[in-house]
Amino acid sequence: MDYAANLAMTLPELVLGVGAVLLMMVSAWGGPGATRAVSWVSVAILAGAGIALFGPASGGAVAFGGLYHADAFAGFAKVLIYVATAVSIILAPGFFERSAGDDLRPEYPVLMLLSACGMGMMVSAGDLLTLYIGLELQSLAAYVLASFVRRDLRSAEAGLKYFVLGALASGILLYGVSLVYGFSGTTLFDGIAQAYAAEASASTRSLGLVFGLVFVFAGLAFKISAVPFHMWTPDVYEGAPTPVTAFFASAPKVAAMGLAVRVAVEAMGPAIFEWRQIVIFAALASIVLGAVGAIGQTNVKRLLAYSSINNVGFALIGLAAGTREGVAGVLTYMAIYVAMTLGCFLVVLRMRDAQGRQVETIASLSGLSRSRPGLAAAMAMFMFSLAGIPPLFGFYAKFAVFDAAVRAGLFPLAAVGIAASVIGAYYYLRVVKTMYFDDPAPEYTREGNGVVEGGLIAVAAVIVSPLGYLTIPALAAWSLTAAQALF
Predict the structure, then answer these.
(1) Cα–Cα distances in Å, from 348 out to 83, 351, 378, 469?
(2) What is the per-residue DSSP string for 274-324?
(3) Which of 207, 241, 279, 439 is least enclosed, having the fewest CB within 10 Å?
(4) How many other CB atoms are found less than 10 A from the CB of residue 200?
(5) Which helix (H) or strand (E) element contains residue 63?
(6) pLDDT tens-digit profile of 11-61?
(7) Which helix (H) or strand (E) holds 62?
(8) Contact 141/111 with Cβ under 8 angstroms?
């Protein structure tokens, strides 16, 4: 295959990379005054990258000798990544103007584009080194974004914690990569799968390959904030600027989950017995700890952080199945999860006191149904949907992964997951109870970019409403096609 054909398959990353470099130059000359223009151009670049997916970039071929996979699975994940990134860019100007003065600079959307480029490399990786480069490109941009508000001590603390713990996780992952390479002799996923298959046919399993698998999954567990590598999530979510927190809870979560699925199925598929045990433990521990940890929270962003840990556990149930239906269930879950999570953070952005300052306490939602009935109704829909209560669309997300687990014969896992979901319903319903039955708190201000944020809230609410079930035929077909690309 010639070089031009290889480049055509990586066109989405080329669009994002070249666009980010050009906008970086514009930012250097234009200064803070160019922020809004750079932000909207960044959204246009993300749209262009999405359009570039319709072609060789999702045609099912491999580029650069197997280093990059341009298949339907990557295309599915990239659509979710680009949408979540674009929403996070759109929300930022209004938030920084009201909460952080003039802190928003044009570097913010540029960092978002670079992070999206790294996430694209993650979900298209066909080699351990491509995996690591994409992961670090995404992470380096994320560290800066977490500490973007320089005068806010919480933001600086969030960036530092994320950097230190992220560096530790990267070291663990790299050590696992070195072990896998040392005992398989290759970094390509296809070659690694052959090494694991050869070991599976032998009477004994190489301890080096087993330990490599464990360390690789430990590093990936940090990126998806699965237990026991979740400790950074509540502090970073609370301290980072709210648009950045919305970004962390959506796009990187999709990318890391997509990367974990690709590594498990493509590179380590023959070792399913070994990694399934790790995934089942992480799934159940994340579901239980995410639910229990959220019960005592008073800050809504910390509550949503534990909610993200809880939801990662449910998505991992689909991965534990190790089947095409299981992978399709993971993709379906992540698609619906992005809509629910972005909707929640859009509501959080509207939580402002009379002076326009961000309010993050759950108690401030008291009586919201009387002062802002539309906002309360939207938040209630997102909470019920995250809890998996029918007829909202979040129920179908949980049904998809539980159905895949049952079809794979993992009845105990599905049963425990269903039972544990009841724990999580408690803190979601507590928020709804606060909004509809508690005495009213001081009313939120109506200042700000109400049209854009209100419109996005309405779109997210429609997606998670029963109307979302109308998309099931298309969503199921798309997710199954994407999952088949890995088998």
Answers:
(1) 19, 5, 11, 26
(2) HHHHHHHHHHHHHHHHHHHHHHT--BHHHHHHHHHHHHHHHHHHHHHH-SH
(3) 439
(4) 14
(5) strand 61-63
(6) 999 999 999 999 999 988 887 788 888 989 999 999 999 999 888 878 878
(7) strand 61-63
(8) yes
